[in-house]
# Entry
Amino acid sequence: MKRNLRLLFIVFVALGIVNSSIAQTYEKIWFDGFARSYFARDAIDKNVKDDTLSPKNASNGYNLLDLNTHVNPIDDIEIFAQIRIKNSFGGFFGSGTEIDSRQLRVNGTINNKVRFSVGDLFLKQSRFTLFNYDEELSEFENDMFKPYRDIIHYENFYTENRWRLQGIQTNFSFGFDRYIKNLAFDFFVTRPRGSRQISIDNYSSDLLLSGGSMVAELNNHFTLKNDYINLFEVPSSGNQNVSVRNPVYQMTLSHYSENNEHYIEQKLEAGFSKRHWLHSELENGNVDSISNKTHGLFLELENSYFKKDSTFDFSIGYRYVDPDFRSAGAQTRRLDYGAGNINSNYPLYTNMQMVRPTSIFDLIADDRLYNQDLSSNLMTFNPIYSNVFPFGDATPNRNGIYFIGRYAHKSKIILGKLNTGFFSELIGQGTPDKRRFTLIRASLKLNIHHFLKLNKELSFSLASENEFTKRSGNSVSSIDLKSNQIRLSINAEFAKRFFIQANYRQFDVKGNEFLTERNNFGEITYFSLSDYNQKDNILSIGILNKIRKNIYANIQYNWWGMEFTGQPFSDYKYNRLLFILSLKL
Amino acid sequence: MLSGQFLKFWIKFLLIFLCISSSAQVKTTKSSPFRSNILTYRKPNSSVSFSGFYRFLGFVRNQVETFPNNSGKTTVISSGDNYREPMFLLKLNGRTRENVTFGADFMINSLYKGPSEDYISPLTLNLGLNLTTTFLTEHGIFKLKSGGISWYRQSRLTVWGNRSFNRISLFERRPQTPLNQFPFNRYSKYYNSGLLDQGIRYGSRAFQGLFIQGTKLPLNFSVKGVIGKSNFNRSFLESSDNFTGCFQLKNILNQSTKISYNYLSSWADTDSLSYDRRNYFIHSLDIDKKINKLQFQMELGIGNYTDPEKKLGFGEAIVLNVKTAKTYKVPLDIQLYRISPQFVNVTGNFLNTTVLEVFPNVAGVGTTVRTPYQSPMVGLGFPVNNRQGASINADLEVGKFRFNAGIGVFAEIDTSYASLSYIHNVNSQTLSRIFLFGQNWGPYNSLNSTYRRVFENVNISDTSKTGLANFKKFFNTIEFEAKYKNQAFGKNYYIFSLTRLNTCQKNLVLIPKFGERTLISQLSQEIDFSIGMSKKAVFILSYGIQKVLGNSSTDIGDNPEASVQSKFFENLGLESLYKYTNYRNQTNTLLGFGIDYKINDNVYLFLRSTKYRYFDPNFIENHLKGFETMLELKINF
# Structure
């Protein structure tokens, strides 16, 4: 009810300032936002015979408008409120309606020198301190599934690999005329999780995330950057007497050189983390103590080359991340397989009403599987989809080299990308033997219309993502896991801004891997062996109408399913009809 | 240890740089220094405007006579319109620079029942969200619309809102009733043209889904369509299929001839596992032709209905209208129609009476959209399926009198339910307010409330072995409206008289008759008197009476003593004009007065006070009597 009153207040304030008719003419308040119409109809494939208990089809849809209200009471201050108005498809005359506040923020500049933001922030530091890594199997996404990805990212506030946090942030910089060129400072304090009542007499503590950065542009060739971040609980804000501390320190030295054609960068990043749990306000007057204390280092050396005409670039590097390196801001995953999330679409299947295993289609299409909360522990991951870098570049217990390259033909006929990595563990898990990882991802796009000099686009794309995990040793501890995703897609513009799209995606995984179970302090407590032999596939065709920039309508049909061999799951197949109209206002 | 060292390093570092900074120039560098937060400054991109209204409706009802199952509460004091109408409607209308329009209408209601949180109504939407984009191509102009409720109209047999000849009493007000420049204009407009602006929804159907429209296509073609849901498409499980899709392809052959093809399909799952499905579809051809001063409109359709229990097969429908120009002394409007029982649709301009199941019957929502379906006796211009017939309407102007009248004869094509239904012409809103959207209520479970209306079901005892009526029903309707304008004491006044007679019998008759051979006779008379007291004020008086009589084939009352059909004629001693009956002998009366007052531009006050009575001496418990008063303050902005 209070929420509604607040919304009412916002609406009335907006209306009052707006002066009833044309709001836009009053420059102190203006609007933009986002709107979407969504409809999906799912159906069990006609060939499926062993599921007569689930509905043969199900549909859902909604329309939403995120109205961004920008209020500029003075030139350097902006109050920003995002109000979500949503009505479900099939709700008439007020039923099925939701109105919520989605974001509220003030930002501005003090004396034209110090920038500040209060409220909903989208923060990012470095890849080892605060970074929201892309979800697995999304590196070479094409236009066919862009509407799905757009929803996942938008609904979960995934913007430019930033975490959405709530708090206060400020930054300012100095310019110098000697010794040093620029010096920038940035600080923030946020609260990823507020104290809440967890039982009648128990309250959890506030979880805070604070950080700071100092970036010194020494000259045109050298930049030095220091980052500090700390995730910690405030014990007195709850009564749980156990609180986590996870500070991370990082220093980056970058060197740049360039001429008219080339640009070269060398970067050395190094840092360390600490994590422990503080036990305070103990019974019988015992003094505070700490437990589960860990330290971890990381180091990365990267050399990058860019051709200035954008036809070729590559990076080659070496990375070392300690087994005990822990950085909540960088290692929190978008997908949490341990959170008990179940698929929104047909969560149960077969006449046994088993929980349906998540497929790559679910990862693409189900925005509710994704996570927005920072985690102080390593989250559960599914090794079949990401076993090499489940926690991004900050994945602990990795040591190896990588190569990332991109090539584009001058006339854009061919565009190729390659991402490889050869890593191994630093210490074995449950055995002296270490895992060895190989990552090979590559994509190739042929712009046939450039080759044939057609006015309308006709392109063909092929992408492959492969992960190999091996661990030698005895028959019990050895691991051999191979996964491969292959994607083929065709885009053909048949009328102005209208595209026919077709896409086939297959994901195969075969082998075995040990899943780790961890306790509340992140310690491994158990390994369980899993054998895999399964195939995911998605076939899609559709029509995309790129109406205008940031506005598109898409209708597509997906056939998707999973096949298991020698596993305690039944195969499944489903179909989906999807319509999305997406507008950035 | 490590952190301590690092902090010391930081502190030293900061101190050194603070010292340096005293000699340095502090500025916000142009080369975008590092910041952890996203840069959010953007330029305005969309224009947004607001409009809407505030409408306070204070309502008091004092029931002197109630139904026996009344709880004992006889007085109602409330605020707000209970028919899901907003007290405060705030319409947001936006347009981006890329010419995309978006809109939402916030609806806020307050019960004004004290500060308790229980009585605070949530902020919600009235019609929902709408997104529209238009794009121009070399082949035509296309409009794509998606979102909440939009009012859509296609053709009479496919999608068309119920629209009759607009013969109504002006005493009742609706939230959509627009404000005029002066209060008296509402009455003068009705006198002059007979047509009142009832808002955008009048004559259209509420749809939501994806709307596509193409105009200025090659060869004078245009197309429009929607796939989504009408308010009849309510699934009993939210995720179950229940959709309607339709489109129209239209061609303007020349200035006097238009032709269009229409298609509609509606389908719904009827079980939770989606194995059973109900489906109907319609193809129709619509022709509009003008020959001199005659305008012909004809729609010819074929439909098919199937569900797990019924396979009705194909059925035909034809609606033909012939209108003469208004320039004639007596302009005519002739309508013929035939809609077969297999031709089922709930979104067209006719009532479905053959398949009850197409109406949603979902708790909380289904009751709001079930129209009369048991052989309804309806007014002119209100087609019904499983029926055929003709009507003729005419206008005439004599001095200060204006008349319009119509007569119609209709017959069922096939036998149907052993029942009838009739819509109350008098006290219809009053009765519907007593039990909003109730089904089969009242002491005899015969009343049904829809939106601002009540219809009543009548059982027929003459049945076949299958339980259906043992005969085809024939319907007659006469509507007569007289309007008069004059001045008294220098003040303009209007008198509107509306007489409606509906009958149903077992045989075809050209002129409706009362008597034992008529199953149900419904006669109503409404008289409105309005006088402009000043430029800003109008005083209104209204009287209505409705008499409904049933014969021996209909429900018998529970009063063992027969009652006289007309006390008026009994008192006059005209024995040939009245009889005694044990069957339906219902009288509805209304006497009311009101004031329309303009406080300022776009600010109006309306007062309505009525005394009502719903009474049947043969059905002892059918007795309602009381007073209603409504004070409406409406402010447009």
Chain A has a mean pLDDT of 89. Chain A has one domain: 2-584. Residues 2-18 of chain A form the longest helix (17 residues). Residues 2-584 of chain A form a domain with the Maltoporin; Chain A fold (CATH 2.40.170).
